[in-house]
Specification:
102 residues; mainly alpha; single chain; 38% helix
């Protein structure tokens, strides 16, 4: 029989509970306990995270704009870029907000 590798958590009472696959027959088994490094128990790689999100249907992989969206003209892009540069600074907005409260 091939070995089965599972990750499990030991509870506060130092107990370990495992649900084994149904194809494991009843009888004696050999159990080997190996503590995982902290980084392996709490961190996922980017690919592991993407796979979990993909499996849950939560990973955005397609286009981000709605299908009926129209591309902006160069003039519209320029106007939007200029809007960001006009107006008051963040510091001015914060100071104005502070004055209203006091």
């Amino acid at each position: 029989m091939l070995p089965i590798t599972m990750t499990a958590t030991v509870d506060e009472n130092h107990r370990l509970t495992l649900d084994l696959p149904e194809d494991i027959p009843a009888g004696e088994v050999e159990v080997i306990i190996r503590q995982l490094p902290v980084s392996q128990t709490n961190e996922m790689t980017r690919d592991e995270l993407h796979e979990k999100l993909r499996a849950a249907g939560l990973l955005m992989e397609g286009p981000f704009a709605p299908p009926d969206a129209e591309e902006l003209s160069p003039e519209e892009r320029q106007r939007i870029g200029q809007l960001a540069g006009k107006g008051r600074s963040t510091l001015e907005l914060i100071n104005e907000d502070r004055e209203e409260r006091f």
